[in-house]
Amino acid sequence: MAGRQLLPQGRHGRRRLLAPDPPGLRQPAHGRQAARRPPLRRRPHTRAPAPALRRHRRSLAGSFMVANDAIVAEAGKQATSSSGSGQLQSFAWMFGSSAGALGNLLGGIALSYFSPRIMFLFFAILLTLQFFTTVTIPESSLKLPKANTNLSALTSIRKQVKELSCALCMPEMFRSIIWFTLSYTVIPFLLGTMFFYQTEVLRLDSSVIGLSKVFGQVALLAWSMSYNKYFKTMSARKVLSVLQFALALVMLSDVLFVQGIYRKIGIPDSIYTIVFSGLFEGLMFFKVLPFSVHIAKLCPAGCEGSVMAFVMSALALATIISGYFGVALAAFMGVSGDDFSALPACLLIEAACTMLPLCCSSLIKERREKVKKEE
């Protein structure tokens, strides 16, 4: 995840930090160029429109991810057996994470030989080819329920909104979505602050930050395979609670990292950044998988896509809010580009807020169904 952009020095001589990129928007299928990046440069006369345009571009990419998750959820609902439930979602995450790791490696290697302008041009060509390839694939091959073509656009939208409202009125559905959204909203994410601390204070090479992205995608692939094989039949409440607790542990480990404890016992800063920063981002992405499987099980037939699109949109909003909470926390505690003495305290607050959703994990309800075993 990209860090915050530095604005010019203000009246009081301190640099202000822009809001970070939303951490909950996953990009497994085409990870960011990571293994080797050009050196970070400060541009004193850079204004806000450039970061704003980048955020709009990533928001557009996030909208495609919302549509992708909706299609996967709707197609995955076709599985009738309990063993096949959630299998398509797991496979989608496996392929996405493996493609993300490969894309990071190839992109990093290419950046060593080509300029960023050439890389953007090549990426645009790949997106164009992907667009024309997608257009040529008939929608009937997805085996999705056929829509009623006799309805007008306005009537169809009203029908989908009504079905979505009925689905959200289900207590187990509504409470689960509330918990999942709050599990992101209440956390003041400090990913941008940590990124700036690693690159500008510790002077870690950009290849280290890039390798952490690759490690996170590999960890995401391993967790997706493990979930599909071992943990898919477990209660969603248990899986999500364990993941939430693991996130808090990684944040507590960051406190020791900032205080230099790991450096004193012989663990280099680069190794810690590669492993734990990658694990943290992988956990943030992976938490969506068991919840999407849980929601797919609760969804009434015919509105899986609408519900999953609503969930991912709520997740995007929650991560934006949590990012601004992180900015507010860092500013309130006095963390700036020249002073990181209060960063350990900020990380402790972040870990404490991460533990808060565990107190209301009972909101995650599962529908009890009688399973008939046939001999």
Automatic annotation (TrEMBL):
List the subcellular locations. Membrane
Q: Which Pfam families match?
A: BT1
Keywords, comma-separated and alphabetical? Membrane, Transmembrane, Transmembrane helix, Transport
Composition bias type Basic residues, residue spans: 33-46
Which parts of this chain are annotated as the region Disordered? 1-54
Its cellular-component GO annotations read: membrane
Q: Where are the transmembrane segments?
A: 91-112, 118-137, 177-197, 239-262, 274-295, 307-335, 341-364
Q: How does it sit in the membrane?
A: Multi-pass membrane protein
Tell me where it mainly resides: membrane
Similarity comment: family membership? Belongs to the major facilitator superfamily. Folate-biopterin transporter (TC 2.A.71) family.
Q: What protein does this entry describe?
A: Major facilitator superfamily (MFS) profile domain-containing protein
In its UniProt entry, the species of origin is given as Setaria viridis
